[in-house]
Amino acid sequence: MTNYIPTIGIEVHVELKTNTKIFSNALNGYGQMANSLTNVIDLGYPGTLPTVNKEVITLAIKAAKVLNCKIRREIHFDRKNYFYPDNPKNFQITQSRTPIGYDGYVEIEVDGIKKKIEIEEMHIEEDTCKSTHRGDKTLLDFNRAGVPLIEIVTKPCISNSTEAKLYLEKLKELLFYSDISDCKMEEGSMRCDANVSIRKNQAAPFGTKCEIKNIGSISNVGLSIEKEIARQAKLLDNGEHFKEQTRRYDDKLGDTVLMRVKETGNDYRYFPEPDIPYLYITDSMIEEVEKTIGMLPDERRKTYIEKGVSEINANKLVQNKPLSDYFNTLLEEKTDFKIASNLLLGDISAYLNKNEKAITETTLTKERFLDLIAKIEDDTLTSRNLKDILETILEETTSIEDIIKEAKIANITDDNALRTIIQKIIATNEESVLDYKAGHDRAIKFFMGQVMKETKGSANPKLAMDILKEELK
């Protein structure tokens, strides 16, 4: 197969987290009974007039700032005219000529090299209703009609499926952390289309573009791009030509499937929406929105690593926003952030997952958590001790000191007492001593296990390890 150069662009529709819809006062919700969140505006009744939801404009400005877009100060809405059952007005209200955001970028990192995925534009529009096909019938649910969307369109600057997936992961992370959208792809609140073409070399003109519609997951975006590149390459290798077309990714087949061929370009007859006046974005509006943008994921990672948290733990914290938000409450304090991250991502996470709780639903206030970190730092508690009392710490308001006393935890921190125990263990395990001298890692783990067993978990692990290595020499 000839090696071709792919050219990829991605369009992402994102539902905004507003209380009500974009042009009506119907609730913006998910999972409710069909057609229960609607009114005459959503249903397209003749004579009804749209009213712009200010919250939509605010979130769109926020998205533009987070995605490094320039913000257009004078905007208007346009009518995109087409006939389809999911659109009873026979037009969709969108932005064609004056998208609110343009010339932005999202930065990704591939194999240590940073690349900016350029954003052509970001515009606001209304969603259509949901069509469900059953046999020869189509059912319509207008709960989704009028839900506010932003559509984010990249330039054709993505080179492969890896870059596409990294871009979508970063985009999802940014929009979720900014509280712009919940980005739940399984619920359709983030939907992706990929445009793919290939050419023989950089000097050649762009190839024929195929659009893959409504891809349901980031992993499937990668798979569909790879399948489409391979399909187009095979056709070109065989000397075949194909028309611009729309395809979809079929999960069961693991391949793209033809939906329709684009014989001619779509003519949506865009024109300015006559029922909505022009909107003007002021400096004060942008400044107010900027105040609501908290610490974004990349800044969090950088800050955590500067505080001594490992890169792995920093990434894991960012992947769990509630834990990351909780961790951020500690940033101005003097504490051991490495211990804090280990606790949150280890035993505390295990408890939260098991009990289906958020950390804010426990009794672990910032003050009690700082006390807990200090008790581990000064060896009052070991990781083994902690397991015995963690549930009490997270469910009761008693002080950490009193919980430790109640549990009768007294760790061995005396060098001589611990050395005597270790010498006895070494003397009765000559075979493991020989294993250790032969360079087998499992031997030291065995000895540590014996020390913890003999001391019922009350030995200071670092002190025990230091003495063990000393004695084994």
| Total number of beta strands | 16
Average residue-wise pLDDT? 92
- Global morphology: elongated
Q: Indicate the proportion of strand residues.
A: 15-25%
What's the alpha carbon Rg, rounded to whole Å? 29 Å
How far apart lie the N and C ends?
61 Å
- Strand line-up across the major sheet: 2-6-7-10-1-11-12-13-14
- Judged by helices, strands and strand pairing, the structural class is alpha+beta
Fraction of residues in H or I helices: 25-40%
Oligomeric description of these chains: single chain
Total number of helices: 15
Q: Note the main sheet.
A: 9 strands, mixed
Could you list the spans in which at least 5 consecutive residues all have pLDDT below 50? none
Task: Report what the structure shows.
The protein has 473 residues and is an alpha+beta fold. 39% of the residues lie in helices and 21% in strands. The protein has 15 helices and 16 strands. It has helices spanning 54-66, 161-177, 218-237, 283-290, 297-306, 311-319, 321-328, 337-355, 366-377, 383-395, 400-406, 415-427, 430-437, 441-454, 461-472; strands spanning 5-15, 70-71, 74-75, 78-81, 91-94, 101-110, 113-126, 130-134, 137-141, 148-154, 190-199, 210-215, 245-250, 255-261, 271-272, 279-280. It has a 9-stranded mixed β-sheet with strand order 2-6-7-10-1-11-12-13-14. The chain has a 3-stranded antiparallel β-sheet with strand order 5-4-15, with no helix packed on it. Strand 13 (245-250) and strand 14 form a beta hairpin. Helix 14 packs across helix 15. The longest helix is centred in the middle third of the chain and has 20 residues, at 218-237. 31% of the residues are buried. The model has no long low-confidence stretch (mean pLDDT 92).
